[in-house]
Amino acid sequence: MTQLALVIDLNVCVGCQACVTSCKEWNTSGSAGPMVDQNPYGADPTGTFFNRVQTFEVGEFPNTETVHFPKSCLHCEDPPCVPVCPTGASYKRKEDGIVLVDYDKCIGCKYCSWACPYGARELDEQQQVMKKCTLCVDRIYDMSMNEEDRKPSCVKACPTSARLYGDIHDSESDVSIAIREAGGYALMPEWGTHPANHYLPRRKTRIKIHEDELERADNPLKVDRKLPKPATNEPTLDDFTTW
Amino acid sequence: MQAVTLSDSSLQEVKTTTCYMCACRCGIRVHMRGGVVRYIDGNPDHPLNKGVICAKGSSGIMKQYSPARLLKPLKRKAGAERGAGEFEEIEWEEVFATLAERLGKIRATDPKKFALFTGRDQMQALTGMFARQFGTPNYAAHGGFCSVNMAAGMIYTIGGSFWEFGGPDLDRAKLFVMIGTAEDHHSNPLKIALSKFKRDGGRFISINPVRTGYSAIADEWVPIRPGTDGALLLAIIHEIIATGLYDREFLVKYSNAGQLVNVAEANDEFGFFVRTEVPTEEACYEPQDKLWWDRNTDRPVVTHQAGADPFLLGEFILPDGTPVKPAFQLLQERVTDYTPDWASQITGISAETIRQLAHEMGVTARDQKIELPIAWTDSWDVEHDTVTGNPVAFHAMRGLAAHSNGFQTIRALAILMSLLGTIDRPGGFRHKAPFPRPIPPCARTPNDPRAVQPNQPLDGMALGWPSDPDDLFVNDDGSPVRIDKAFSWEYPLSVHGLMHNAITNAWRGDPYKIDTLLIFMANMSWNSTMNTVEVRQMLNDKETEGPNAGEFKIPFLVVCDAFHSEMTAFADLILPDTTYLERHDVMSMLDRPISEFDGPVDSVRIPVVPVSGDCKPFQEVLIELGTRLKLPAFVTKAGERKFRDYPDFVVNWETEPGSGIGFLAGWRGKGGEKFLRGEPNPKQWEMYEKNNCVFHYELPKSYQYMRNWNKGYLEWSQRNRITRYAEPILIHLYSEVLQRFRSAAQGKGLTRKPPEPLKKRIDTYFDPLPFYYEPLEGQVTDRHKYPLAAVTQRPMAMYHSWDSQNAWLRQIHTHNYLFVNTRTALQQGIADGDWIWVESQWGKVRCMARHSEAVEPGTVWTWNAIGKAAGAWNLTPDANESQKGFLLNHLISEELPAGGSSRISNSDPITGQAAWYDVRVRIYKVGAGETATTSPQFEVMKPYPGMKTRSSILAFLGVKPK
Amino acid sequence: MHPAFSVIFLTTLIGAAQGLFLALFTVQSYAAFKLLPAPDAHAFYGQGSVLAVTLLVLGLGASFFHLGHPERAWRSAAMWRTSWLSREVIVLPAFMGIVFLYGLAHWLDWHPVLMTLPGGLPVDPSAILGVAGTLLAFALFVCTGMIYACLKFLAEWHSPLTVINYVLLGGASGFTLAAAFATAAAPELVSFLAGWAVIITALGLISRAASLYRNARLKPKSTLQTAIGIKHPKIVQKTQGFMGGSFNTREFFHGKPIAVLRGIKWFFLIAVFPLPLLLLLIGMQGNSGGLVAAFVVQYLGLLAERWFFFAQANHPQNLYYQSIA
């Protein structure tokens, strides 16, 4: 059984927000749109976005880590937002595990968003239905696109390729390998939602320098150091002993 | 789901062009539906970005359809004040007639009175050419304000620099050190490379007062005090030399390390390389007539003699009795006192960390050598079987440059990179065409005021690379010819001009008054200026006495911009520019191309949507003006128009008739079969359009590395007229260029001499070897009163662009906070989110504080240019940008006191680089009862005629509204 | 959470209506067993049902303001297998129907004896409707309470006390209303009804205080560490990805200072419990105005209590929305 998902690599995310706006531009004029912006040129502009990049600081100076943190619907394997929906507008597809909202059925009661611990859903203030990441379901199956384009807009945009996309139920997919080899984890595991999206942690690369690596036979200073030759008229043993 | 149906593919089309949301210039695909832009993504076939796109590129739609667009040429209403925003619509014919008449008069009398300054553009080849044809020396882009130190410091040392001129080879590097960088021109490619680098096991160290952006994913963050990087770099050099971790062979062959310097203090030639007679070709740029002291024969020989190997250390006496030392010996003496312990006090970095950095760099460079099976021949006809490299790469940017000690700091960096043997080698720093170039590059400004003649093109370039005092563009009395005083004794190596001085000098009439100031895409009454409040007053200031009483001190101000920026409010004439989706553009080899390491790349922009309103691309404006003014490049000998329009100009213009060199390097020749040089090809634009708007020339592998000294590359470059000379470009560890200026200041030699008041300054700062000095502003600041350094950076989502008119991007950055180290803030009783005053000795600003652990305790910082003037960018007057956002520039002065009543520019004494990161501040909570808005506030800008009204709700569907 | 007045009015109005109906049928049951004098059916059961139905309709009407698409509300019965909201959408109209029929039966004096229980008790349609209505009233309390209590993420709600409170507070307000109503419709029942209102209110005080006590001692299950998956004791958010607010900052935050919350808590504790108790006791002495005042005060107090119920719940998603920069 397929479960499509994203893997977000926090080890290379530089917080550039590419995923945020490429998602917005694709989806606002796509089948998941429109995505409203209120007060777009005024005070406190606010709008519907499916993906946000946040920033956290971990630790204290000077040992601070700055963590850029993209967040969008995690397409949980056990999505708490599905059983609570009274109309069935919130549903999980059997064929690929994507969790979607049927705008035609949604009554805008917001109950599903109360049931999502991740805050992954947004009510579109204009259309008054719940909206969220669709894993670009209208791109990934659009056969009129080239294969390299048949992936979510955010995955294609990400300049550091911090967003990986694939089937986490296929143990040899890129995403499964990444989760396995890099210690991919789920958010808020205490709730048992089994998010399909995983995050890869930060890893540090260090270089060890050994003391003796600084002292070497081929040290160029030995070439350049011109050791002073003593003057020939300075005393030597020759002056004191004959053997 | 429902919303829009996509099924009607006849309505959809995709066009490729080049993005212009910032200076990266990625290849993009613009997807349209019924003529409306619906989606923009990266072009997978473009060599620069390979299909990725950033936040700004993805938001291009909201730039295109922003209500801040200026759609009609405008004229300031008669009697209205500048800055009041009172305009009336006019037609382009009136614009051209007005400008042609006024500029024609100026050209016929004193061309200097016309000044053209451009901001964040990459059209410098055309704008510079226009200024030169007009005959005015008063032209520059924003480099002097931004990061000229990075260009100059490195180009005067290794013949290349970062940005689009060169960069780190992260494909092969094992250790990558990034210093003073937030984001950069080459942004998406750097992101692609950095991610691969990390995943392939590379180690990434970031040295920066702040940990944001790229630094967030560094394996180690080394916090440093702003302006002290020079101390760090010199201490690392000290340690590298002391432990012998330098690449001796590289220094010997490829730099001037072994060259013998005259050290007889009384001698007129003191500090210069000793020269000897050698047979030289005619027209040789830098003859190879210097000496080494050969280790093998223990006597002086001409450099690079076969079988010779110089001493790098030691002191010698030449046969004629002249005491000499190798340049490297002088470098070692210079850094003797620059110990890690000394640097630790200044930088705030522990001595152990400094040593560790030096050891990591040195040992990695030495022990992880790369060997590529690429044969090449060097400039001395020695054949090499392989290209080798030391895999330590660097990147640095404005954090080093925007200080008054930036030039010497960056020289130190370039020298460190050279000591590690990483210049144009795999895993290190690699040039990008048209670099490397000779040191210094050949382009020169005139050196004589008589180069400015009525009705004549300027006899020289407006910007250039001085080599000695005789290259300075000064009058006989040593005073500057240019309005911004560039290339004068005040800023001799100001290779990018000094945009930030233009308005102040013009207002003051020092060195002279001008008539017309034409500004393109530069927000000089806001974030592209220091001391914003006063500059705004200067723009509206009038003469109070004399024959011109009642007239503006800067009589005529023309602003070309696509959007309702703060600068437009001060214009007498506004020219509405198009957006990047509506025009032709070239990313040319004559300017700032997007070359790759492996060869030159240039690209174009082609219109994908029709021009909005009555906008006109600035290039078309210049061509039209050039034609009307009958500038020689734009008209035939009979005075007839030569070029139909800008695309026609790009295809048919050549640097000289028959030279075969034009703006675009690809598909030249009658049939498009030639590259780099060739006859104009009438179908050139079509060829680019067919090829993803980009031309990529891949050099043969044997020409791709060691290009400073690569015979094959240098001759190829000469044949294709990329450079004039095919001589090797030795790295200037020791800079004779600087020594020439110092020597003149000491009264030695036959070149011009500086005026008395500047002698000491030039003698001090024009040191042929890098040295550390405290930034100038710090030297006149009471550190107890102003204990904190204040710096800015631009966020990635708004880098190198103004994006507050963009409905999507501004939701990410709506207003800004001053980030303060948590402990520092708490010591002052400032809680997270508190309103505070941040104050320098020049001014103060009210804003909100945000605690952060990711900033070193002695620094505060904010995102630059998020704060806007009320009403600007067609935002509502109560928008966050103006009520809660703030600009730090108000705190920065463009001048510093210099004893008595005299003042000097707050800039690097060598290049004139604006020293905006030198400012020192203090912070404190606001008083009770103060309003919760930022201060200062400015008169509300209103929308102009012809602009669209802004909507209060937007639900973009990407279809034409019914 | 951000308290929505549409839902506050919905739950308080229908809660009172449910309690009122339970009061009506309690009286009918007591009267059937001759423990109470039978009141005038028209005035008491009939008009009482009208009052209850009115409250139910008003409540239902208020709830539509909570929906983005009220015109599709009929769809919301679809997921009754999994969704408590769906179940409420079925039970509420069913209850309304039963109350309406119950009132109609009394109004039309329609009391055919359908069967007789052992012991001689006659069972007429109103009795059956009354039993059905009672079951539905409790079912509705459970559905309403479970809508909130089933959300394990909202620890403040995730407890049997939530449902118990809905029952007791709805019951209390309903019986208080019944007592006030009885001063006009059946004065002889006032003491009985007021007495029960006192008892249920007192029980409500215990259970509501218990939930306040429990909530004050809750330890959040989610932390910033589990929210972003980094095992470091000190994590602070700097930016949430936007600066002008979003659905996530509007729907899940009440936006009021702590002092306001505290004030509302004390207001409702007084206005729902001791003050109505006092007014009920006074009213039982014969002061009809006191009973009306008791209901008004208690109802206003319940509006505040319901507001506080929503405001107090701290959603784990709030961890992701703490700072802008």
> SSE order of chain A, as H and E?
EHEEEEEEHEEHHEHEH
Compressed to H and E, one letter per element, the order of chain C equals HHHEEHHHHEHHHH
Q: Overall mean pLDDT score of chain C?
A: 95
The third-level CATH topology of chain C is: Formate dehydrogenase/DMSO reductase fold
Largest chain interface and its two residue counts? A-B, 83 and 104 residues
User: Tally of extended strands of chain A?
Assistant: 11
Helicity of chain C, as a percent range: 55-70%
The fraction of residues assigned to DSSP E strands of chain C is: under 5%
- Total E-strand runs of chain C: 3
- Helix coverage percent of residues of chain A? 10-25%
What sort of overall outline of chain A do the alpha carbons produce when their principal axes are compared?
elongated
Distance between the termini of chain C: 23 Å
The biggest sheet of chain C amounts to: 2 strands, antiparallel
Q: How many H/I helices of chain C? A: 11
Low-pLDDT sequence parts of chain A: none
Please, what is the oligomeric state? Answer: heterotrimer
Tally of alpha and pi helices of chain A: 6
Q: What summary fits the major beta sheet of chain A?
A: 3 strands, mixed
**Strand arrangement across the biggest beta sheet of chain C:** 1-2
Could you tell me how far the N terminus lies from the C terminus of chain A, measured between alpha carbons in angstroms?
Answer: 97 Å
